[in-house]
Amino acid sequence: MLTLVPGCTSDTPDPLVVLGPWTGEEGKAFEAALNRLDDGTGRTYTYEGTRSLRETLVSQLEADAPPDVAILNSIGELTEYARRDELKPLVEETAERAYPPWAPTLLVDGRRRTYWVPLKVDLKSLVWSKEGTSSDDPAWCVGLASQATSGWPGTDWIEDILLHQAGPAVYEEWATSRLSWLDPAVRQAWTTWAELLGDRSPESIERSLTTSYEGVPGPGGPRGLLDSPGFDCTYEHQSAFIRYLYASEDVRVEPSARFLGGRAEYRDTYEVAGDMAAVFSDDPAAQELVERLSSPAGRKRWQSEADPGVRPLFPNTAGLPPAVPANPIEQEIDDLLNSRARTLCFDASDVMPPELRDAFHRAVLEFFRDPSKRHLDSLLRQLETVRVQVDEESADGRSFRPPEVICASSGG
After folding, report:
1. What does the pLDDT read at residue 12?
2. How many Cβ atoms are within 10 Å of 18's Cβ, its own excluded?
3. 339 CB contacts (<8 Å, ≥6 apart)?
């Protein structure tokens, strides 16, 4: 947990509480940007950074003590909170920064509103390797462990494959629970992943299931799967955020499309993720805080405080002048995100309702251990059952529609 209370005096109101996912160097950079925020109101801020974000927020809501502002990466969770009237619609100045596909509007009681805004974004659909490595027969690094959310590196694989094989329209229907998990395109994505991974020994499977996506820790901390002992691999499929482990000059990053067996017309389509700020408080200062954090000045302040490996990425619609790249890797990622990408689609599992997303994570772990046709049939039937149940249970008597558009042309 990172705590920040600048300029606190006995005459000031209670600090605004910001709950977010960033710890370590990322948390320190955000904390420093928040510390430099001068909103002219005399308010103070407390930042709580945690890797167990959903569990922390749920417990705070159950205790009727929510944060003033929470920063989440799951559209599915944000949609759930909006449906329960736990989120406050954003003021107009902030809503104008709700760039697609990170912040789709919601239709609630006949009114279309914006309930969250991206503070930073991440580009997925990327593959990492060492310079000079041959791509003729990639040996894939896979680490699926991640505390309470183990399995998401595998769901990223399946999502990216489906996006490039079936295209944005099918991907969007599937991510928003309008397409059955028994659809042939969905099944093909799972089987393609198994084919790409190839034959693996029981020892290799167990190693991947129990090793963090950050790789095996070394003397200085995590060192990435490409540099981890015991992993005889040459390529890794991972989001842009992993660059904090791969900032050296001997590592390269490239689009994932050519590895996935997709169609040429979807080559410049990319999956993206983001960290979105939402207001849980009636305090007008909470709205003002999100407005300032999402402003060009707030983004520039945060970017200037962060080390190169964890410097936040922003879409070119964020109102910022082009930043001087910290290194060739950041330059390549920024170029892909803001110049070469034609279509951006939000991370599918982060769009799904939490119950379905969690079931997807578990199914990936089971499939990784046993990719047989019979087992896959069973897993897809289970996921389809969860999809139908969640859809039936979501009706609560209010006029509410979840987002259906989670893909957009690059740049909005």
Report:
1. 66
2. 25
3. none
- In the predicted structure, residue 247 carries a pLDDT above the cut 90: no
Q: Is the pLDDT of residue 307 over 80?
A: yes
Helix (H, G, I), strand (E, B) or coil at 392: helix
**Residue 292 domain-assigned (yes or no):** yes
CA distance 117 to 100: 10
Domain ranges, residue 70: 16-122+273-335
Tens digits of residue pLDDT in 132-179: 898 888 999 999 999 878 999 999 999 999 999 999 999 999 999 999
DSSP string, 128-141: EEETT---SS--EE
- Find out whether 310 and 32 touch, Cβ atoms under 8 Å: no
In a domain, 320, yes or no: yes
> Is 295 part of a structural domain of the chain?
yes
Tokens 């897993």 correspond to 379
3-class DSSP assignment, residue 197: helix
Q: Token match 């849980």: residue? A: 280
Distances (CA, A) of 272 to 333, 336, 359: 12, 11, 21
**Could you give the CA distance from residue 392 to residue 287 in angstroms, rounded to a whole number?**
33
Number of domains making up the chain: 1
Q: What is the DSSP letter of 318?
A: G
Cα gap 358→352, rounded to integer Å: 9
Q: Is residue 303 part of a domain?
A: yes
Q: What is the CATH number of the domain that holds 300?
A: 3.40.190.10
The model's pLDDT over 254-268, given as tens digits with 9 standing for 90+, comes to 999 999 999 999 999
How far is it, in rounded angstroms, from Cα 213 to Cα 152? 9
- One DSSP character per residue, 201-269 reads -HHHHHHHHHSBTT-S-BTTB---GGG-TT---SEEE--GGGGGT--STTEEEEESGGGTT--GGGTTE
